[in-house]
């Protein structure tokens, strides 16, 4: 019941695919799971998720086989605590600024002596008091999938050092923020960004970590897989809805 299948599949080299969710809808999340996605990232940074919505959507994930991950607003110990206590299978931490910041953030997801997470066995993650210790089920430090997003120049320069953090599972390359922070106005197709992403992927893979990347179409998915990326986020729920509606309008307006 408490095996983190997503983490197991990634560690064996399988490719998994999910999406960013910024619409706090348990129904949509259940649809994503029923449609066969491997994971969904419930987004507290850019989405309108609060703690209640995270709670509801994790329950929806549990109704299907989709794995719930939570992007917290930043290296925020309280948000990380809420998400893990509610039974999330992993945490995605944005806006990391270098090695020390990454080390501190990863520590927030783990109990002592590895980290600083608060212990409470009476939550959903603790089986509402059925957990016998901090090593039980979802409370075990090895259970959660821990991800940081490299999306600024400071973290990019410290990438090799960040890759040495033992409890860090996935390094997600945030190409959109990188394209802004490097003065490219968000142009993710710029040749400079493409080279940066290629170099970053190589560094992460050589360190034995999993690489995460956002893809927006089949060509980008193929290119990412060819480069060794196996944690693929295929767009955002708002984008998928907008594209579907736009296509309907286009079809009905075509002569």
Please outline the helices and strands.
Blueprint: H1 5-11, E1 16-21, H2 26-34, E2 39-43, H3 51-62, E3 67-71, H4 77-85, E4 90-93, H5 98-107, E5 145-150, H6 153-157, H7 159-162, E6 170-173, H8 175-181, H9 191-206, E7 210-215, H10 218-226, E8 231-236, H11 237-253
Helix pairs in contact: 2-3
Describe it for me?
The chain is built from eleven helices and eight strands. The protein is α/β, with parallel strands linked by helices and 255 residues long. An eight-stranded parallel β-barrel has the order 1-2-3-4-5-6-7-8, surrounded by eight helices.
Order of helices and strands: HEHEHEHEHEHHEHHEHEH
Largest sheet: 8 strands, parallel, barrel
Structural class: alpha/beta
Q: Which range best describes the helical content: under 10%, 10-25%, 25-40%, 40-55%, 55-70% or over 70%?
A: 40-55%
Query: Can you tell me the overall shape?
Result: globular
Cα-atom Rg, whole angstroms?
Answer: 18 Å
Please tell me the total number of domains: 1
Largest beta sheet: what is the strand line-up?
A: 1-2-3-4-5-6-7-8
Poorly predicted spans: none
* CATH fold naming: TIM Barrel
- CATH superfamily grouping: Phosphoenolpyruvate-binding domains
Total beta strands: 8
The average pLDDT score comes to 94
Level-1 CATH class name: Alpha Beta
State the helix count: 11
Task: Tell me the CATH architecture.
Answer: Alpha-Beta Barrel
Strand-residue proportion: 15-25%
Task: Please give the oligomerization state of what you see.
Answer: single chain
Distance between the termini: 54 Å
């Amino acid at each position: 019941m408490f095996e983190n299948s997503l983490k197991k599949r990634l560690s064996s080299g399988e490719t998994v695919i999910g999406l960013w969710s910024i619409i706090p809808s348990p129904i949509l999340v259940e649809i994503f799971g029923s449609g066969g996605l491997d994971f969904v990232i419930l987004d507290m940074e850019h989405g309108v998720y609060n703690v209640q919505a995270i709670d509801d959507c994790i329950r929806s994930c549990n109704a299907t086989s989709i794995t719930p991950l939570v992007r917290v607003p930043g290296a925020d110990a309280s948000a990380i605590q809420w998400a893990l206590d509610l039974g999330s299978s992993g945490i995605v931490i944005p806006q990391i600024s270098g090695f020390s910041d990454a080390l501190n953030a990863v520590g927030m997801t783990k109990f002592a002596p590895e980290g600083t997470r608060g212990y409470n066995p009476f939550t959903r993650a603790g089986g509402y008091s059925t957990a016998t210790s901090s090593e039980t089920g979802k409370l075990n430090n090895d259970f959660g999938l821990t991800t940081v997003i490299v999306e600024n120049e400071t973290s990019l320069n410290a990438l090799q050092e960040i890759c040495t953090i033992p409890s860090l599972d996935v390094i997600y390359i945030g190409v959109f923020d990188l394209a802004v922070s490097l003065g490219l106005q968000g142009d993710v197709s710029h040749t400079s960004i493409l080279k940066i992403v290629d170099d970053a992927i190589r560094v992460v893979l050589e360190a034995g970590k999993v690489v995460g990347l956002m893809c927006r179409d089949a060509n980008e998915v193929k290119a990412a897989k060819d480069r060794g990326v196996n944690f693929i986020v295929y767009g955002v729920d708002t984008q998928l809805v907008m594209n579907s509606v736009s296509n309907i309008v286009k079809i009905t307006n075509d002569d």
